[in-house]
Amino acid sequence: EKKIFVVQGPYPVIRRLLRARGWVEKKLPRATRQLERQRGRWQQQQEEVEEEEEGGDGTEQGEAVPSLGSPWPPEEEEEEEEEQWDEDPDGIHKFMSHLVQDQVPFFFWVNHCSAIDCRQLRQDQVVNHFVGVNAFTTKEGLCFNLRNLPWCDQADPDSFFPRCYRLGAAGERQAFIEDFRLTAARSLLKVALERAGDGLVGMEQLTKSSEGPGERRVPRSHIPHSMLPTVGLGPPASPQLVEQALQVCEQHLGSLRHQDIDGDPLSPCMTGADWDRFLQDYYCVAHEGAGLALSRAQQERCRVLLQLLAERLPQLGMEGNHNVWILKPAAKSRGRGITCVARLEEVLRLAGGCAGPSARVGEWVVQKYVERPLLIFGTKFDIRQWFLVTDWNPLTVWFYRESYLRFCSRPFSLRHLHPARHLCNVSIQKRYRQLQAHLAQVGRAGAWHQVMVPGMKAAVVRALRSAQELVESCKGSFELYGADFVFGEDCQPWLLEINASPTMAPSSAVTSCLCAAVQRDTLRVVIDRRDDPTCSTGAFELIYKE
């Protein structure tokens, strides 16, 4: 009946469910396991040199689950581990596995696509991986390929994926520098408007109280910069700072309207040296509370300009005003090596000078940090959302209706960029239903079904379509992925990354239940549904089929 399977690593749920369906496991012979251990030790040495541990293609594996390319424990430990995970007290399954050692397996569940040569598979063999998925399961691949989205879908990746740059790619480093500068200029205008709310009240009272009977009040726009009140607690910054930011943003708006194409080319408002001085002043204002001189005319220009920019920049709201970016090693998973940075020179120093233990030069991506996330009791969280691809031609996508939240371990604050406030912790987890209940309590009962879920579905499909031509389709095979999202204050989801081989390790009571369920429902879709198209697919919902 072609019910022979191979499972690599301790996946007790998959083993148990397949055996319950009448499948027999073909275990790797001892000689093969020894060879794999030797290969694993050699590869570990290579990885210690290259620092590309297991995440080179976006793979995210539980630490208790060794891959074929990972170091294997001594034979005694390995056999103890197998006995621990393998529910076979009487040795029946071990005996049956011995009987099928010369038979061809038809179902493979492995940690990594390199464990199986997918190109050599027969048409009736199924594996849980596709070749070429690093086009969207690595930070670098997702960053690059989402830019091709407008060619296959009428959608703007900036509407669901925080803008991202590969610092080692030609031209992208300079593009990031320009983006950082423009974001600083926009942020300064936002800071000026926010502070003017209180500052202008004081100015109105001051000018009114100083007017005598019959005295004419001097218009605020006619007051010299040196006499304007400053908004902010620290010493005032350059009086020309707001004007410089206005000119830069007005020119940027013109380029967004393509005025630089239709008319004469616009000369830059500021040189490199001008930008260096501007950024230092901006840091003083945004990070240290330095005061700003703002006229009424400038205030109105700020308000109108930001409104016009918001119509063309879908990330204007979520980008905040601190200009924080998140720097990530391009080929690592589980948050390793990630840091939040708010100064341009620090980003370039970290990315350009870390040829040592973290990552090689050019292997960094930098992404705009979502500065205005949805918080729960003042704490940031993200969400792990599973989805399943069962075909790439035609593209067929299943979305899992269950998901779980991961919280940071300390309250959110942009004044402190410590990872505990900004990187979510796998040890603090809640189910999505608890998020729904919280949203209902704060008056957003419909946000989950009306905004969050539709937005996550659309982001997943668009990410897959952008990389579709780069993935090798293998009929009958499938792959389970884990997408990570963070939500803005308006509940809009922002895709952070997509992981291949999402960890199934039961790290908490929440994941212990959900990981078992997603494995169960995956087998329903990829095995049971082949024989019975009307069977239950559990929590998986077909959301896209070309």
Automatic annotation (TrEMBL):
Locations listed in the record: Cytoplasm, Cytoskeleton, Flagellum axoneme
Alphabetized GO MF terms: ATP binding; protein-glycine ligase activity, initiating
UniProt entry tagged with the keyword Cell membrane: no
Residue ranges with Acidic residues bias: 47-57, 74-87
GO CC field: axoneme; microtubule cytoskeleton
Region (Disordered): 34-87
Record-linked Pfam families: TTL (PF03133)
Gene Ontology process terms (BP): cilium assembly; cilium movement
Catalytic activity line of the entry: L-glutamyl-[protein] + glycine + ATP = glycyl-L-glutamyl-[protein] + ADP + phosphate + H(+)
SUPFAM superfamilies (UniProt xref): Glutathione synthetase ATP-binding domain-like
Swiss-Prot/TrEMBL keywords: ATP-binding, Cytoplasm, Ligase, Nucleotide-binding
Domain of life of the native organism: Eukaryota
Protein name according to UniProt: TTLL3 monoglycylase
